[in-house]
Protein backbone atom coordinates (compact mmCIF):
# COMPACT_ATOMS: atom_id res chain seq x y z
CA UNK A 1 0.00 0.00 0.00
CA UNK A 2 2.78 2.41 0.87
CA UNK A 3 4.47 1.75 -2.46
CA UNK A 4 1.18 2.50 -4.19
CA UNK A 5 0.82 5.82 -2.40
CA UNK A 6 4.35 6.78 -3.42
CA UNK A 7 3.63 5.62 -6.95
CA UNK A 8 0.49 7.75 -7.17
CA UNK A 9 2.34 10.76 -5.79
CA UNK A 10 5.22 10.42 -8.27
CA UNK A 11 2.77 9.84 -11.11
CA UNK A 12 0.88 13.02 -10.28
CA UNK A 13 4.15 14.99 -10.20
CA UNK A 14 5.27 13.49 -13.51
CA UNK A 15 1.89 14.26 -15.10
CA UNK A 16 2.08 17.86 -13.88
CA UNK A 17 5.60 18.16 -15.28
CA UNK A 18 4.32 16.87 -18.63
CA UNK A 19 1.61 19.52 -18.74
CA UNK A 20 4.05 22.27 -17.69
CA UNK A 21 6.59 21.20 -20.32
CA UNK A 22 3.98 21.32 -23.09
CA UNK A 23 2.62 24.69 -22.03
CA UNK A 24 5.94 26.23 -20.99
CA UNK A 25 8.51 24.94 -23.48
CA UNK A 26 6.53 24.40 -26.69
CA UNK A 27 5.98 28.14 -27.31
CA UNK A 28 9.75 28.69 -27.04
CA UNK A 29 10.38 25.92 -29.56
CA UNK A 30 8.01 27.64 -32.00
CA UNK A 31 9.50 31.08 -31.31
CA UNK A 32 13.05 29.86 -31.89
CA UNK A 33 11.96 28.18 -35.10
CA UNK A 34 10.56 31.52 -36.31
CA UNK A 35 13.89 33.15 -35.36
CA UNK A 36 15.75 30.53 -37.43
CA UNK A 37 17.38 29.19 -34.26
CA UNK A 38 16.73 25.64 -35.45
CA UNK A 39 19.12 23.86 -33.11
CA UNK A 40 17.55 25.44 -30.01
CA UNK A 41 14.08 24.74 -31.37
CA UNK A 42 14.98 21.07 -31.88
CA UNK A 43 16.37 20.80 -28.33
CA UNK A 44 13.16 22.31 -26.92
CA UNK A 45 11.07 19.94 -28.99
CA UNK A 46 13.15 16.94 -27.92
CA UNK A 47 12.70 17.96 -24.27
CA UNK A 48 8.93 18.20 -24.66
CA UNK A 49 8.58 14.95 -26.58
CA UNK A 50 11.02 13.17 -24.26
CA UNK A 51 9.17 14.22 -21.13
CA UNK A 52 5.78 13.30 -22.64
CA UNK A 53 7.13 9.90 -23.70
CA UNK A 54 8.61 9.18 -20.27
CA UNK A 55 5.42 10.27 -18.50
CA UNK A 56 3.38 8.03 -20.80
CA UNK A 57 5.74 5.14 -20.06
CA UNK A 58 5.36 5.75 -16.31
CA UNK A 59 1.56 5.76 -16.61
CA UNK A 60 1.59 2.51 -18.58
CA UNK A 61 4.21 0.57 -16.58
CA UNK A 62 3.86 2.17 -13.10
CA UNK A 63 7.67 2.33 -12.89
CA UNK A 64 7.47 5.82 -11.47
CA UNK A 65 10.63 5.67 -9.36
CA UNK A 66 12.85 4.76 -12.31
CA UNK A 67 11.13 7.18 -14.70
CA UNK A 68 11.35 10.05 -12.20
CA UNK A 69 15.11 9.56 -11.95
CA UNK A 70 15.47 9.45 -15.74
CA UNK A 71 13.35 12.60 -16.12
CA UNK A 72 15.47 14.42 -13.53
CA UNK A 73 18.66 13.60 -15.41
CA UNK A 74 16.98 14.34 -18.77
CA UNK A 75 15.83 17.86 -17.88
CA UNK A 76 19.18 18.69 -16.28
CA UNK A 77 21.01 17.56 -19.41
CA UNK A 78 18.49 19.42 -21.54
CA UNK A 79 18.98 22.73 -19.79
CA UNK A 80 22.75 22.46 -20.22
CA UNK A 81 22.29 21.73 -23.92
CA UNK A 82 19.96 24.69 -24.47
CA UNK A 83 22.30 27.07 -22.60
CA UNK A 84 25.28 25.88 -24.66
CA UNK A 85 23.33 26.45 -27.89
CA UNK A 86 21.37 29.57 -26.96
CA UNK A 87 23.80 31.24 -24.57
CA UNK A 88 22.95 33.62 -21.78
CA UNK A 89 19.39 34.14 -23.07
CA UNK A 90 18.43 30.68 -21.81
CA UNK A 91 20.53 30.59 -18.67
CA UNK A 92 17.67 31.45 -16.31
CA UNK A 93 16.06 28.09 -17.18
CA UNK A 94 18.64 26.59 -14.83
CA UNK A 95 16.69 27.76 -11.78
CA UNK A 96 13.29 26.15 -12.47
CA UNK A 97 15.14 22.95 -13.41
CA UNK A 98 16.87 23.00 -10.02
CA UNK A 99 13.52 23.28 -8.25
CA UNK A 100 11.86 20.64 -10.46
CA UNK A 101 14.59 18.10 -9.71
CA UNK A 102 13.56 18.00 -6.05
CA UNK A 103 10.08 16.89 -7.07
CA UNK A 104 11.45 14.05 -9.22
CA UNK A 105 13.84 12.27 -6.87
CA UNK A 106 14.74 12.07 -3.20
CA UNK A 107 16.05 15.33 -1.69
CA UNK A 108 19.61 14.09 -1.21
CA UNK A 109 19.67 12.75 -4.78
CA UNK A 110 18.36 16.06 -6.13
CA UNK A 111 21.01 17.95 -4.15
CA UNK A 112 23.70 15.77 -5.73
CA UNK A 113 22.32 16.33 -9.24
CA UNK A 114 22.17 20.08 -8.59
CA UNK A 115 25.78 20.07 -7.43
CA UNK A 116 26.83 18.46 -10.72
CA UNK A 117 24.70 20.96 -12.65
CA UNK A 118 26.34 23.87 -10.85
CA UNK A 119 29.85 22.55 -11.59
CA UNK A 120 28.98 22.08 -15.27
CA UNK A 121 27.57 25.61 -15.42
CA UNK A 122 30.91 26.99 -14.21
CA UNK A 123 32.51 25.82 -17.46
CA UNK A 124 29.89 27.23 -19.80
CA UNK A 125 31.36 29.80 -22.21
CA UNK A 126 30.55 33.50 -22.01
CA UNK A 127 27.94 33.14 -19.25
CA UNK A 128 30.00 34.72 -16.53
CA UNK A 129 30.96 37.63 -18.72
CA UNK A 130 27.43 38.83 -18.03
CA UNK A 131 26.49 37.19 -14.72
CA UNK A 132 28.86 37.64 -11.75
CA UNK A 133 30.24 34.27 -10.70
CA UNK A 134 29.71 34.90 -6.97
CA UNK A 135 26.07 35.86 -7.57
CA UNK A 136 25.51 32.65 -9.52
CA UNK A 137 27.07 30.46 -6.85
CA UNK A 138 25.15 32.13 -4.02
CA UNK A 139 21.78 32.00 -5.81
CA UNK A 140 22.33 28.38 -6.85
CA UNK A 141 23.14 27.44 -3.26
CA UNK A 142 20.16 29.38 -1.91
CA UNK A 143 17.69 27.84 -4.35
CA UNK A 144 19.10 24.32 -3.84
CA UNK A 145 19.23 24.46 -0.06
CA UNK A 146 15.83 26.13 0.30
CA UNK A 147 14.18 23.61 -1.98
CA UNK A 148 16.06 20.79 -0.26
CA UNK A 149 14.68 21.81 3.14
CA UNK A 150 11.15 22.03 1.72
CA UNK A 151 11.42 18.71 -0.13
CA UNK A 152 12.92 16.96 2.88
CA UNK A 153 10.13 18.22 5.11
CA UNK A 154 7.51 17.22 2.54
CA UNK A 155 8.99 13.73 2.31
CA UNK A 156 8.71 13.30 6.09
CA UNK A 157 5.11 14.51 6.07
CA UNK A 158 4.28 12.19 3.19
CA UNK A 159 5.81 9.28 5.12
CA UNK A 160 3.64 10.20 8.11
CA UNK A 161 0.58 10.33 5.85
CA UNK A 162 1.45 6.88 4.52
CA UNK A 163 1.59 5.52 8.06
CA UNK A 164 -1.72 7.12 8.98
CA UNK A 165 -3.35 5.64 5.87
CA UNK A 166 -1.97 2.12 6.16
CA UNK A 167 -1.35 1.33 9.84
CA UNK A 168 -3.91 0.46 12.50
CA UNK A 169 -3.58 3.13 15.19
CA UNK A 170 -4.17 0.76 18.14
CA UNK A 171 -2.04 -2.26 17.30
CA UNK A 172 0.54 -1.08 14.78
CA UNK A 173 -0.50 -3.79 12.31
CA UNK A 174 -1.39 -2.80 8.78
CA UNK A 175 -5.03 -1.84 8.35
CA UNK A 176 -7.88 -2.94 6.06
CA UNK A 177 -7.12 -0.24 3.53
CA UNK A 178 -3.61 -1.65 3.14
CA UNK A 179 -5.02 -5.19 3.05
CA UNK A 180 -7.40 -4.39 0.23
CA UNK A 181 -4.62 -2.88 -1.85
CA UNK A 182 -2.09 -5.63 -1.08
CA UNK A 183 -4.55 -8.45 -1.82
CA UNK A 184 -5.24 -6.92 -5.23
CA UNK A 185 -1.49 -6.73 -5.88
CA UNK A 186 -0.94 -10.31 -4.64
CA UNK A 187 -3.71 -11.60 -6.89
CA UNK A 188 -2.22 -9.77 -9.86
CA UNK A 189 1.25 -11.20 -9.18
CA UNK A 190 -0.16 -14.68 -8.68
CA UNK A 191 -2.07 -14.56 -11.95
CA UNK A 192 1.00 -13.39 -13.89
CA UNK A 193 3.67 -15.52 -12.22
CA UNK A 194 1.72 -18.28 -10.45
CA UNK A 195 3.32 -17.22 -7.16
CA UNK A 196 1.95 -19.52 -4.40
CA UNK A 197 0.51 -16.93 -2.02
CA UNK A 198 -1.19 -18.07 1.18
CA UNK A 199 -3.79 -16.09 3.12
CA UNK A 200 -4.36 -16.76 6.82
CA UNK A 201 -7.28 -15.45 8.87
CA UNK A 202 -6.49 -15.36 12.59
CA UNK A 203 -8.90 -14.93 15.49
CA UNK A 204 -8.11 -14.66 19.20
CA UNK A 205 -9.88 -17.39 21.15
CA UNK A 206 -12.35 -16.27 23.85
CA UNK A 207 -11.26 -12.65 23.49
CA UNK A 208 -14.58 -11.41 24.86
CA UNK A 209 -13.76 -13.19 28.12
CA UNK A 210 -10.45 -11.31 28.28
CA UNK A 211 -12.23 -7.97 27.81
CA UNK A 212 -14.97 -8.81 30.30
CA UNK A 213 -12.63 -10.15 32.98
CA UNK A 214 -9.68 -7.76 32.71
CA UNK A 215 -11.13 -4.70 30.99
CA UNK A 216 -10.67 -3.20 27.56
CA UNK A 217 -7.28 -1.68 28.39
CA UNK A 218 -5.91 -5.16 28.98
CA UNK A 219 -7.70 -6.38 25.86
CA UNK A 220 -6.03 -3.63 23.84
CA UNK A 221 -2.66 -4.61 25.28
CA UNK A 222 -3.25 -8.25 24.34
CA UNK A 223 -3.97 -7.17 20.74
CA UNK A 224 -0.79 -5.08 20.69
CA UNK A 225 1.24 -7.96 22.13
CA UNK A 226 -0.20 -10.30 19.50
CA UNK A 227 1.05 -8.01 16.75
CA UNK A 228 4.48 -7.73 18.37
CA UNK A 229 4.83 -11.50 18.74
CA UNK A 230 3.53 -12.21 15.26
CA UNK A 231 5.78 -9.73 13.48
CA UNK A 232 8.77 -11.14 15.37
CA UNK A 233 7.98 -14.65 14.08
CA UNK A 234 7.21 -13.98 10.42
CA UNK A 235 9.46 -13.03 7.54
CA UNK A 236 10.07 -9.38 6.67
CA UNK A 237 8.12 -9.67 3.41
CA UNK A 238 5.08 -11.34 5.04
CA UNK A 239 2.32 -8.84 5.80
CA UNK A 240 0.15 -8.74 8.92
CA UNK A 241 -3.12 -6.78 9.03
CA UNK A 242 -5.82 -6.05 11.56
CA UNK A 243 -9.03 -7.12 9.85
CA UNK A 244 -11.39 -5.95 12.58
CA UNK A 245 -11.85 -6.44 16.32
CA UNK A 246 -9.74 -9.45 17.29
CA UNK A 247 -9.43 -10.77 13.72
CA UNK A 248 -6.19 -10.45 11.77
CA UNK A 249 -4.99 -11.43 8.32
CA UNK A 250 -1.56 -12.73 7.37
CA UNK A 251 -0.53 -12.57 3.70
CA UNK A 252 2.27 -15.01 2.96
CA UNK A 253 4.10 -15.19 -0.39
CA UNK A 254 6.14 -18.14 -1.64
CA UNK A 255 6.58 -20.45 1.33
CA UNK A 256 7.75 -24.06 1.03
CA UNK A 257 6.14 -25.49 4.17
CA UNK A 258 3.13 -23.37 5.20
CA UNK A 259 1.90 -25.91 7.76
CA UNK A 260 5.17 -25.85 9.70
CA UNK A 261 5.35 -22.05 9.40
CA UNK A 262 1.84 -21.47 10.77
CA UNK A 263 2.17 -24.10 13.49
CA UNK A 264 5.43 -22.54 14.67
CA UNK A 265 3.66 -19.17 14.79
CA UNK A 266 0.72 -20.67 16.69
CA UNK A 267 3.06 -22.25 19.26
CA UNK A 268 5.05 -19.02 19.67
CA UNK A 269 1.87 -17.01 20.31
CA UNK A 270 0.52 -19.62 22.73
CA UNK A 271 3.79 -19.54 24.64
CA UNK A 272 4.25 -15.76 24.79
CA UNK A 273 0.77 -14.19 24.73
CA UNK A 274 -0.53 -13.96 28.30
CA UNK A 275 -3.14 -12.18 30.41
CA UNK A 276 -1.97 -10.15 33.43
CA UNK A 277 -2.35 -13.20 35.70
CA UNK A 278 -0.28 -15.39 33.37
CA UNK A 279 -3.04 -17.27 31.55
CA UNK A 280 -2.29 -18.07 27.94
CA UNK A 281 -4.26 -16.54 25.09
CA UNK A 282 -4.54 -18.75 22.02
CA UNK A 283 -5.34 -18.11 18.38
CA UNK A 284 -7.28 -20.08 15.76
CA UNK A 285 -6.24 -20.04 12.10
CA UNK A 286 -8.02 -20.50 8.80
CA UNK A 287 -5.60 -20.82 5.88
CA UNK A 288 -6.27 -20.83 2.17
CA UNK A 289 -3.95 -20.92 -0.81
CA UNK A 290 -4.27 -18.93 -3.99
CA UNK A 291 -5.65 -20.88 -6.93
CA UNK A 292 -6.37 -19.62 -10.46
CA UNK A 293 -9.55 -17.60 -10.55
CA UNK A 294 -9.31 -16.49 -6.91
CA UNK A 295 -10.82 -13.08 -6.12
CA UNK A 296 -10.36 -10.98 -3.02
CA UNK A 297 -13.82 -11.91 -1.74
CA UNK A 298 -13.48 -15.63 -2.47
CA UNK A 299 -10.03 -15.71 -0.87
CA UNK A 300 -11.24 -14.14 2.36
CA UNK A 301 -14.40 -16.24 2.35
CA UNK A 302 -12.41 -19.45 1.96
CA UNK A 303 -10.12 -18.47 4.84
CA UNK A 304 -13.13 -17.52 6.97
CA UNK A 305 -14.73 -20.93 6.38
CA UNK A 306 -11.50 -22.62 7.42
CA UNK A 307 -11.34 -20.42 10.52
CA UNK A 308 -14.92 -21.34 11.39
CA UNK A 309 -13.91 -25.00 11.17
CA UNK A 310 -10.93 -24.32 13.45
CA UNK A 311 -13.29 -22.80 16.02
CA UNK A 312 -15.62 -25.79 15.70
CA UNK A 313 -12.67 -28.15 16.23
CA UNK A 314 -11.97 -26.69 19.67
CA UNK A 315 -9.90 -23.58 18.84
CA UNK A 316 -6.12 -23.16 19.15
CA UNK A 317 -5.61 -25.03 15.91
CA UNK A 318 -4.86 -24.53 12.22
CA UNK A 319 -7.23 -25.52 9.43
CA UNK A 320 -6.28 -25.35 5.75
CA UNK A 321 -9.16 -24.82 3.39
CA UNK A 322 -8.19 -27.83 1.27
CA UNK A 323 -8.61 -30.06 4.32
From TrEMBL:
Q: What UniProt keywords apply to this chain's record, in alphabetical order?
A: Membrane, Transmembrane, Transmembrane helix
Kindly give the SUPFAM superfamilies that the UniProt entry links to this protein: Nucleotide cyclase
Q: Which residues form a coiled coil?
A: none
This entry's Enzyme Commission designation comes to 2.7.7.65
- SMART domains listed in its UniProt record: GGDEF (SM00267)
**Enzyme class name:** transferase
Superkingdom classification of source:
Bacteria
UniProt domain GGDEF: residue ranges: 195-323
User: Catalysed reaction(s)?
Assistant: 2 GTP = 3',3'-c-di-GMP + 2 diphosphate
List the InterPro entries hit by this protein, alphabetically: Diguanylate_Cyclase (IPR050469), GGDEF_dom (IPR000160), Nucleotide_cyclase (IPR029787), Rev_trsase/Diguanyl_cyclase (IPR043128)
Q: Which residues cross the membrane?
A: 12-31, 37-59, 66-88, 94-124, 131-151
What's the protein called, per UniProt?
diguanylate cyclase
Which organism does this sequence originate in? Oceanisphaera ostreae
